């Protein structure tokens, strides 16, 4: 039989769009001679639907869409993911499930057992874990169908009551199919391939794995669907960050015509770049937005965000606003204008000195006798926030936040100033990685001006200010932050690696005390294994200091 894998970009709750896309690819697969076409986990409604699942109408619309898809499934079978009702009296109301459809009818339902409940996942909030498993019989073959985590790590969660493949293998299946919604992080593609290859070897079966692609607010799905032989050798890898449909010939328990491959892996920075571009593009297209605005300071963070936005939306849809303060250097303005000229986006220059002075004068009676400090610096940052939000309101632009992960981690930013925005583009990218992104963006010729890259980072909110006045050097800071945030190491464990004790404790305290700020920041595009936001849930008023 011929099996098609459809790696597609779905839109949560957009049933008309998702249904049309699935039907289109059923017809495409049929035209290519496929007998079976396989779609991703919760393809009908999009993943993750979150509390949409608590609406009765939402579940009904899923079923209506599935029946519409079934009507187009003639002379070809399909597998689609969707939530289905749990008809039992006990347990959660829903299963995370998949329909096997043949000749216009749902012939079998596969339910997910291993419900992830960590990092960005919260499936046990909505779904009942399956406890019974059965292979699908089609064209004389037995298919062991599993859903994402059911072919992943089963040892981390006490809620995991059964291992589906250990049950399905008893029926002597001919092949495995796994449908997934596996989010991107720059470490995940390699780990995912290893786990899947191990399963192919363990059960000695060929494995067809289909993942979805596209961004859903902060979560990016990278695609990268895979096919393995029964020895765990990789036979094919579909593109990352792109939609694709491919057809494979399966006979005699083998994928025909393919030999083992060792594809060249993209660098972490190349993957981060592509994920951020896709994240921006889908945030705008799926929200019905077209044009972006951002503050362009002449510094490296805003320059990188501007470049990424232009690649995602087109430079004609990006407005860069230069907002010099009375402390801004001439070269910062020039660097920002050089970027605008290199990249071709729209721009405005709106100085904030008059507005900041007005606030200073207004507050002078209250602040009389007190020295200039962070208060006056933050007033300037908030003046900039007012300007870009005014541009957003007047012209319908959507504001991009330009804070990096290092700043987000230690609270080096101003609430309602430079921390405002609709989506955080590089909030999961450490400062040192921002420099790497700059090199990647400039690899085909200078986009981000050289002076933007080489000059010391500065917010330019007081005379001669540099980031190093308030923060450790970024090389050291980012290494300690990675140990604490991504690896969840204690201060003691980090200090034992040779880092200065006072510095480690200072940094960790900064991270913990800045939690209240992160609760008020926009959603951040997730590219790392542990991003701020839904994947890292810390109490604001917690006393514990690691």
Strand order of the largest sheet: 5-4-3-2-1-14-15
Number-wise, the strands total 20
Distance, first to last CA: 56 Å
Shape summary: elongated
Kindly name the structural category. Answer: alpha/beta
Query: What is the makeup of the main sheet?
Result: 7 strands, mixed
Please state the CA-atom Rg, rounded to the nearest Å: 26 Å
Question: Low-confidence runs (pLDDT<50, min 5 residues)?
Answer: 154-158
Strand content: 15-25%
**Percent range for helical residues?**
25-40%
Give me the number of helical elements.
16
- The whole-number mean of residue pLDDT values reads 94
Describe, in plain words, how this protein is organized in 3D.
Mean pLDDT is 94; it is low at 154-158. The N and C termini lie far apart (56 Å). The longest helix is centred in the C-terminal third of the chain and has 22 residues, at 374-395. The chain has 16 helices and 20 strands. 36% of the residues lie in helices and 18% in strands. The chain has a seven-stranded mixed β-sheet, covered by helices on one side. With 546 residues, the chain is α/β, with parallel strands linked by helices.
List the helices and strands and how they pair.
Elements lengths: L1 E6 L7 H17 L4 E3 L17 H16 L5 E9 L8 E9 L2 E7 L24 E3 L2 E7 L16 H5 L6 E6 L7 H16 L3 E5 L1 E4 L2 E4 L3 E3 L5 E4 L6 E8 L2 E2 L12 H20 L4 E4 L4 H14 L4 E5 L7 H14 L2 E4 L3 H15 L6 H22 L2 E4 L3 H6 L12 E2 L6 H11 L8 H5 L19 H12 L5 H5 L5 H13 L1 H4 L28
Parallel strand pairs: 1-2, 2-3, 7-8, 8-9, 16-17, 16-19, 17-18, 19-20
Antiparallel strand pairs: 1-14, 3-4, 4-5, 6-7, 9-12, 10-11, 12-13, 14-15
Helix pairs in contact: 1-2, 5-6, 5-11, 6-11, 8-9, 13-15
């Amino acid at each position: 039989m011929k099996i098609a894998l459809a790696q597609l970009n779905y839109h949560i709750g957009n049933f008309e769009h998702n249904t049309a896309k699935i039907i289109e690819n059923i017809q495409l697969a049929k035209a290519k001679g496929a007998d079976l076409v396989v779609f991703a986990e919760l393809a009908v409604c999009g993943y993750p639907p979150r509390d949409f699942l608590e609406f009765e109408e939402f579940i009904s619309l899923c079923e209506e869409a599935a029946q519409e898809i079934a009507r187009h499934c003639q002379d070809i079978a399909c597998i689609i993911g969707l939530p289905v009702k749990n008809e039992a009296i006990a347990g959660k109301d829903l299963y995370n499930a998949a329909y096997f459809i043949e000749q216009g009818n749902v012939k079998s339902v596969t339910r997910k057992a291993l419900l992830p409940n960590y990092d960005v996942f919260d499936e046990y909030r909505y779904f009942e874990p399956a406890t019974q498993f059965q292979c699908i019989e089609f064209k004389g073959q037995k298919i062991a169908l599993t859903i994402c985590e059911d072919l992943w790590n089963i040892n981390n969660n006490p809620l995991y009551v059964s291992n589906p493949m250990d049950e399905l293998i008893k029926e002597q299946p001919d092949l495995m199919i796994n449908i997934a919604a596996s989010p991107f992080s720059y470490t995940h593609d390699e780990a995912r391939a290893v786990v899947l290859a191990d399963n192919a070897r363990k059960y000695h079966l060929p494995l067809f794995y289909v993942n979805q692609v596209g961004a859903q607010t902060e979560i990016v799905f990278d695609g990268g669907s895979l096919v393995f032989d029964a020895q765990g050798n990789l036979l094919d890898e579909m593109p990352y960050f792109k939609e694709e449909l491919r057809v494979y010939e399966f006979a005699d328990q083998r994928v025909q015509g393919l030999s083992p491959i060792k594809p060249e892996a993209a660098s972490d920075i190349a993957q981060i770049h592509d994920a951020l571009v896709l994240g921006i593009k889908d945030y705008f297209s799926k929200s019905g937005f077209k044009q972006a605005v951002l503050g362009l300071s002449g510094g490296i963070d805003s320059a990188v965000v501007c470049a990424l936005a232009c690649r995602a939306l087109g430079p004609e849809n990006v407005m860069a606003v230069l907002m010099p303060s009375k402390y801004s250097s001439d070269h910062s303005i020039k660097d920002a204008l050089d970027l605008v000229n290199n990249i071709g986006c729209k721009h405005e220059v709106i100085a904030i000195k008059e507005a900041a002075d007005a606030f200073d004068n207004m507050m002078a009676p209250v602040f009389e006798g007190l020295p200039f400090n962070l208060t006056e610096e933050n007033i300037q940052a908030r003046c900039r926030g007012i300007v870009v939000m005014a541009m957003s309101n007047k012209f319908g632009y959507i504001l991009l936040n330009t804070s990096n992960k290092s700043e987000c981690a230690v609270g080096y930013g101003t609430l309602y100033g430079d921390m405002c925005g609709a989506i955080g583009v590089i909030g999961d990218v450490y400062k040192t990685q921002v420099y790497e992104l700059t090199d990647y963006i400039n690899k085909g010729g200078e986009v981000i001006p050289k002076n933007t890259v080489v000059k010391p980072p500065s917010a330019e909110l007081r005379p001669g200010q540099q980031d190093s006045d308030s923060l450790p050097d970024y090389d050291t800071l980012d290494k300690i932050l990675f140990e604490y945030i991504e690896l969840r190491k204690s201060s003691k464990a980090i200090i034992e690696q040779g880092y200065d004790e006072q510095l480690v404790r200072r940094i960790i305290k900064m991270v913990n005390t800045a939690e209240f700020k992160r609760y008020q920041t926009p959603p951040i595009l997730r590219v790392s294994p542990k991003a701020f936001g839904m994947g890292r849930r810390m109490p604001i008023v917690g006393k514990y200091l690691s």
